UniProtKB/TrEMBL annotation:
It comes from the Bacteria. The chain crosses the membrane at residues 53-72, 87-118, 138-154, 169-187, 194-216, 228-246, 258-279, 299-317, 326-346, 358-381, 388-408. Residues 8-125 form the MgtC/SapB/SrpB/YhiD N-terminal domain. Keywords: Membrane, Transmembrane, Transmembrane helix. InterPro entries: DUF4010, MgtC_SapB_SrpB_YhiD_N. Residues 174-382 form the DUF4010 domain. It comes from Rubripirellula amarantea. It holds the Pfam family DUF4010. This is MgtC family protein.
Length: 430
């Protein structure tokens, strides 16, 4: 029964890729040839009986047939230097072989990816054509940061308090750069279609501080853009709360159940502010900024150093002055960067160095401190009207956050059975 199932799946996958090639009017292979190739691979594997010679002969025979077809095209004067169909044919033979050995899942995924890549030719070529030198450098820097630097770093702790691990520190750099890079790519793909709302969302995921500074400066030369700039700045700062929850969920899921309600409450408050501000400003327009490459090596190194300093400072301050000193560190570090204090607090929580009630308060204080810093940047760089908008919106958020810090009960998540069960379920499944 499994043999016939493999043959049926092989036929279906071959028809899928063959349909795409036939639709593209490929002269090498189409809707009949590709299923025959995949079936050939499946039967070759089923009959090979572990020897492998029949499979090798099958690959060779397919390659020879493809070469003959291309020679005939050259002689007829119809030569296309592209090799996509030929490679797809060899790949589908390998897919058939994988099905013959029982590797059904990888075979289906591979054939599906092949069909999508073949069909997205124009879209992928257009994407590459639209890339600038800065975009390509961003991609190469991301590869350098994540695939070259990270694997060679030692995975062990150094120094006092046993908190400085080069591998863990750089892994946090990769996480932050990765989140920013995904938002940057999405922003570049949408381009002018991003608009104010999406511009603010992507700006918050890439860098809310950079977005705030960019739009504040824009209002100096274009005062008419002030109202919509305020909207984008508020949205970007609102999205920071989502970014923080994502970071905590990745680094410390067990801490997320204690920070979920406080951060979500602050998020909801700022979303309401965004909605209230959006109604009178939705018809105004502004020019989206050209965001810097988020995968630059120098800022990545600076963030890694900042994260290491905060990690060490948190451990040292708790040991020398007690947990209350962490709030002062959160207020200072949060002025320029919320990510570093968020990730360091999550790591300290994982190691049992910080209790949950202190951890979520540290993160909230850093978030409020960052709002104050960005409001100050707007006052220095933007118009008076923009300063009034941002001061009012951020002021409400800061007041709400302070009230939450004062009156929020400790470990309140345990009082919400649904959320408690949700997080306990996720922890047990992991």
């Amino acid at each position: 029964m499994e043999t016939y199932q493999a043959i049926a799946i092989s036929l279906g996958l071959g028809l899928l890729v063959g349909l795409q090639r036939q639709w593209k009017e490929s002269e090498i292979a189409g809707i009949r040839t590709f299923p025959l190739i995949s079936l050939f691979g499946t039967l070759s594997t089923l009959m090979a009986d572990q020897s492998g010679w029949l499979i090798a002969a099958g690959v060779l025979s397919i390659a020879v047939l493809l070469a003959i077809a291309n020679i005939a095209k050259i002689r007829s004067g119809d030569f296309d230097s592209g090799m996509t169909t030929e490679i797809a044919a060899l790949l589908m033979f390998a897919v058939g072989c994988a099905l013959g050995t029982g590797n059904t899942g990888p075979a289906i995924v591979t054939a599906g990816v092949a069909a999508v890549l073949l069909h997205w030719k124009q879209r992928l070529h257009g994407l590459v054509a639209s890339m600038t030198d800065k975009d390509l450098r961003a991609l190469m820097n991301l590869v350098l940061i994540s695939l070259v630097v990270l694997p060679i770093l030692p995975d062990q702790t150094f120094g006092p308090y046993d908190v400085l691990n080069p591998y863990d520190i750089w892994r946090m750099v990769v996480l932050i750069v990765g989140i920013s890079m995904v938002a940057y790519v999405a922003y570049k793909l949408l381009g002018a279609k991003a608009g104010a709302i999406l511009g603010g969302i992507f700006g918050g995921l890439i860098s809310s501080t950079a977005t705030t500074v960019s739009y504040a400066r824009q209002t100096k030369s274009s005062p008419d853009a002030t109202t919509m700039a305020a909207m984008v700045i508020l949205i970007a700062s609102t999205v920071v709360n989502v970014r923080i929850l994502i970071e905590i969920g990745i680094v410390s899921p067990s801490l997320l159940k204690f920070t979920f309600l406080p951060m979500t409450s602050l998020l909801i408050l700022m979303v309401v502010e965004c909605f209230v501000l959006y109604l009178p400003l939705r018809r105004h327009a502004t020019t989206p900024p050209d965001h810097d490459n988020p995968a630059q090596l120098k800022p990545a190194i600076i963030f890694g150093g900042l994260y290491a300093i905060i990690l060490f400072a948190v451990a040292a301050a708790k040991d020398i002055f007690g947990e209350n000193s962490l709030y002062a560190i959160a207020g200072i570090s949060g002025l320029t960067d919320v990510d570093a204090i968020t990730l360091s607090t999550a790591k300290m929580f994982n190691e049992g160095r910080v209790d949950p009630d202190t951890a979520w308060r540290v993160i909230v204080i850093a978030t409020l401190s960052n709002l104050i810093f960005k409001a100050g940047a707007v006052v220095l760089l933007g118009t008076r009207k923009l300063s009034l908008y941002v001061a009012a919106a951020f002021g409400v958020a800061v007041i709400g956050g302070v009230l939450m810090l004062v009156f929020w009960p400790g470990s309140a998540i345990n009082e919400v059975p649904f959320l408690q069960g949700l997080f306990e379920g996720s922890e047990s499944s992991s």
